[in-house]
Amino acid sequence: MDERTRTSLDRAADRVRRHIDRVAAAESLGLILGRTNAPSPTMFVQYKPCVSVVLAGRKVSGDDSAAGEEWGPERFLITPVDLPLFARVTETGPAGDFVSVNWRIDPAVVAEVAGQLPLPAAPEAPERLGTMTAEIADVVDRMLALLDAPAEAGVLAPLLNRELIVRLLQSDQAARVLAAATHANADIITAAITTLTRRLAEPWTLGAIAASVGASPTTVSRRFRELTGLTPMRYLKRLRLGEARRLLITDGDTAAQAGAAVGYVSASHFSRDYRSAYGRSPASDATDLRERMRAS
């Protein structure tokens, strides 16, 4: 990583540290700030459409606890639609903490900006993680700086939102940024995700998902892969396992209760999928996380 990029990210990390408790102010800018002082267990994370940047430390994110990509400040993640991931912090940075920021992406702004730019040819299926550039790091730093200048934020934040899209469209993730804004079928996937989230326990098949949004199974499967990198059924499994974990930890459900509540017919099937995702049995994972929560 070049010195200019590193300097911008280091400065951005310091801004997050100083403002980590200003949740409402950050959210008004479309930002979610993150900081922890230690590696974490695997967690289910539901990303909204955003660009996710690690400013200090490293994390692993992917399909499950075993198969994931480790990344840090040299990369960034684009999620053009709601995307469930399994993630964990693996390392803290030189200052002894892990620091991150998620910046919400508005598809309408993407469409507006893209319509005014000559777009270079980009791969239809880019790598899941993008390569950080000095320009992206700089605009992230300047957006975070508005936490120190609330009187200016109303004027400058919309400009920086557009500049971020310009910089992302100039990156190796241009195709993923455009995905949600340039394809009419993005609305189909958004509708499918909403339906699945609200009706997790139903016995879904690919055909049933497609029928729920008035599209063909082929179209739904193709668009899911383009926008999320997952098949519809794999996406559904992530949603189910994430909600089941919440039920185990916060509601105290048994494994059998949690699995049934999210649509698993077989308790053993649920336990196998859960262990694959989180690396432990449902009972031991929930017990450990409840203890961590009580100790924190």
TrEMBL record:
The keyword Disulfide bond does not apply. SMART domains: HTH_ARAC. Residues 190-288 form the HTH araC/xylS-type domain. It comes from the Bacteria. Keywords: Transcription, Transcription regulation. PANTHER family: ARAC-FAMILY TRANSCRIPTIONAL REGULATOR, TRANSCRIPTIONAL REGULATORY PROTEIN. This is AraC family transcriptional regulator.
